[in-house]
Amino acid sequence: MPKTRPLDPPAPPTSTDSRTRLLDAALRVIRARGYSATRVDDICEAAGLSKGSFFHHFASKEELAVAAAAHWSATTGALFKAAPYHALADPLDRLLGYVDFRKAILRRAVPDFTCLVGTMVQEAYESNPAIRDACERSIFGHADEVAKDIARAKQRYAPDATWTSESLAYYTQAVLQGAFVLAKARNSSVVAEECVDHLRRYLELLFHHPRTAEEKMLKTRAKGAFIWYELSTPDEKTAQKFYGDVLGWKFRDMSGPNGTYTIVSDGSVDVGGMWTMPKDMAAAGAPVAWFPYLGVDDVDGFTKRVKAAGGRVQREPEDIPGYGRFSMVTDPQGAYFMLMTPSTTEARPMVAPETPGHVGWRELHAGEGAAAFKFYSEFFGWTKGDAMDMGPMGVYQTFFADDAPTGGMMTKMPQSPTPFWLFYFNVPALDAAIAKVKQAGGRLINDPMQVPMGRWIVQCTDPQGALFALIAPKR
Q1: Which of 146, 196, 342, 384 lies in disulfide reach of 103, CB 3.0 to 4.6 Å?
Q2: What is the pLDDT of residues 39-86, one digit of tens each?
Q3: Which CATH class is domain 219-472?
Q4: For residue 275, what are the β-bridge partners?
Q5: Strand, helix or coil at 175?
Q6: For the residues of 84-112, what is the DSSP string, one character each?
Q7: Which fold has domain 18-207?
Q8: pTM, rounded to two decimals
Q9: How far apart are CA 456 and CA 434, in angstroms?
Q10: pLDDT value at residue 345
Q11: Cα separation of 422 and 461, whole Å?
């Protein structure tokens, strides 16, 4: 993941006009500190401009706040307009996709997902009518956009309902704004994400749109979703000891006549598995590594398509009795991954994105980043998120799978011999986890660094040489 600074420095001079720079700074500072606690000096410092420049554009902080509300609407409006859920044909799917997108935004740092107008109106609703009116235009203007898909979904699935599209849109915004407040009180997005999950369930019940068996299967198998993670290692017992010490995993032996296999979990929800590779595989140069399983609805068909696109088939499709059918392939540039069609249509238990011990981010170090994204997007429907220019290191392209921010990809560093997938496991605090890695015999391959959304990461290898990473909300 790309490196960033812990704190935003003053903005350097750019071609952006000074008024816009002041408004951008206001969006950052007010969301972090609140309207009342924000001073004109704070906004000027964040924008890298003088107070003379501020008062050239705005007569007062209040006038800036009114303009900032409109600027917030324009900025967030562009974000939502570009969101992938708009491409869905069914209006109910678009509505639920909007809720999923809002949940995805919650996975950022608290100031990043905080609503500017929601923050300001709570402080100024009585003392400053102009600010209140500006916030009203922003909040209800956004709700009116959501109401359009609600109206279409109502016409299709609940034509006899007595509630109005506008009232449901306002209710949706009320839940989201309330979730922001709870997240601030806890200084964590987890409670807010749970609220959004309840909102989604309520909407599904309200429209009462039964899915066909085929639709349920496709949703459960979630084409292109990461459904499992697996460690191939020469020493499974040593790997269990290491990851148990570092991540607190529990282990369940599932070995059979065809070899050893261990399922790893956080104690209640499975994370993935690990197995001891046969000696002949190790002798043939099979990598000691973590591999992803990507869900598809037709393993055999997808395996053929991967081969036709220039990938390699490392293991032909075969059945795992009681679990599904899988194959092992590489993308055209050589990164390994698994394809799998589960035998059940039951969805796996969901966990919050930052749950300790689970994968919090997925990262492809590709032979060539742009070509890799083209392959995965065409095969699995992944869509682009933010792209970050890292200078000599190239572009870091984030991607969405199933309407949620899932990971990123970049062109690998020259010292990396082959392309590979890297997985970031959640830990509560980075420094404590690093100490466990070292004590258990692992090795750090770079220094800890802060990344966007205020998180901290470090990349490591386990005692057998498998590469993995850690991600935490704090040092």
Answers
A1: 196
A2: 999 999 999 999 999 999 999 999 999 999 999 888 888 888 877 788
A3: alpha beta
A4: 232
A5: helix
A6: GGGG-SSHHHHHHHHHHHHHHHTTS-HHH
A7: Tetracycline Repressor; domain 2 (1.10.357)
A8: 0.58
A9: 11
A10: 62
A11: 11
